[in-house]
Amino acid sequence: MIAEFATQAGLAYAFVEREVALMKRYWLWEVVWIIYGIVTSLSVAFIGIAAPAISGNQVDPATTSRFVLYLLVGTIAWRFMGLVFENIAEIIAWERWEGTIEYTFMAPVPRLTHLAGMAGGTIVRALVFSVTTLFAVMLFIPVDLSHANALSAIVMLAVGTVAFMGLGIASAVFPMLWTEKGLQMAYIVQAIVLLVSGVYYPTTVLPGWLQALSVISPATYVIEGMRRALLDGADLAACWPQVWPALLVGVLSIPIGLRAFIAAERYAKRTGRLKRSG
Amino acid sequence: MAIAVRESLGPPTLGPGVPALRARDVVKRFRSSGKDVQAVSGVSVAVQRGEIYALLGANGSGKSTLIRCFSTLLEPDAGAVTVFGLDIHDDELAVKRLINRVSVEASFFKKLSAMENLVYAGRLYGVPAADARLRSREILVRLGIAVARHDEPLEKLSRGMQQKVAIARAFLTSPALLLLDEPTTGLDIRSKREVQTFVRDLRDEHDATILLTTHDLDEAERLADRIGVLHEGKLVAEGTAAELAGRYGTRGSLEDVFMTITGKKLEELAAGDGDAEEAGG
After folding, report:
1. Which of A70, B193, B240, B277 could pair with B65 in a Cys bridge, judged by C-beta atoms 3.0 to 4.6 Å apart?
2. Residues in chain B closer than 8 A to A274 (CB atoms)
3. For residue B109, which phi and psi values (nearest 5 degrees)?
4. How far is A227 from B152, CA to CA, in rounded Å?
5. ipTM of the shown complex
């Protein structure tokens, strides 16, 4: 059992090592994306700072500071989860573009191990991006983390990672079945999740039918829980109403996503789609 | 210098009469532009352990489709394929451990170096990184790629060198059955000969079974113990080069054999034929 786990971990590490090596080789692009992320987060934070000027009302500094942190939590947490989703959803499209899809799918690696390895590489990348963004933003804007409960925030992010891995795996099915349209579909899924999950605003401002969608989005709970942890210092017990729904999505979405992925792989093998040109 | 390959994944012990590869009545159709294209029509073939078997055919004859079926990338619509007695569908993971494939286009992460790609490939087949580095160096040097080029991004290497790295990758994992899909297409004469010599050495020194597809008559004759002629998705003739020449060739050449069987020169078919498997797939 332990030996088998070690074997699978070794196989999964191949993908982590590959992703890190690719990050190094595409380092200039990585710098571009990090700068893009920092600029986006800063722009959102400045909207918070400008709240009094935009609304024409007096807002006390403590409220402004809370508003800025509210927005920053949303933008940085979304950046992290969005990267996890994108990188996993693009597994097929990326390997097709590199021309390596046949070799990867011919390798004697169980699909679960393959996807776990890719998720590992993705988490490394998302962490580097998010932590860099947070520290870069703090150079420009005073961020008040004096009430933050770091443990609760980390747990929320971990739970969100699991949920978004599942969503990403399920969305990677689209590019497997439809070479070009499939990736477009995955991006549409991501865009809808962004809209309904309260990344920049409470979900209560959404029209009723969009609020219904927000209930099934794990990002809704992850971002709400992170705000409670970082703005109000909520401990794990206080965050439980946000933890369990996100955890539930993760627990359900990973096996469902994996089953869908394996079924799509079989279909691709029957129809000849498992190749570089789709 | 002996080829450095891993011994632990050598060919499994076979019962008497179990071939390294057996295909029975394999059929593969594709849907293309609203039409059904039959790429492979009931092909049966058996390749014995330690044999080099060449599938000879023009573009679109079904060679690549067959190789993709054998390498678990395509599921046949009908028929059965076993590798060392293991069914490619039911025992897929075990089959994958025994095979490797080199395709006509070298598929790599082109920004990564040859060494990085090979170490990655080694890890996928359970070869520790240190061993993979050592063996990769030996194989690449044997294939004529200087040590100084091993750590350069692959995109900076020539097409021929990339193809040699693809061959090195397959050898690194010590496949019991090596599937070579037009491995020397696009290589210069010297590189072609180096690869052909290496393929023979791999078989002779390490008990590998090799199935290669080619539309190069000279290559088939030079390398293969037996040759199967594939035409319009059907295996239309099979035997050693001498047997085929005796059966079909008026002047004893494979070119004559091919013309007698198909009614056309191989070059004509190669130039004028679309690739059915690609169109369908």
Report:
1. B277
2. 73-74
3. -80, 105
4. 47
5. 0.86
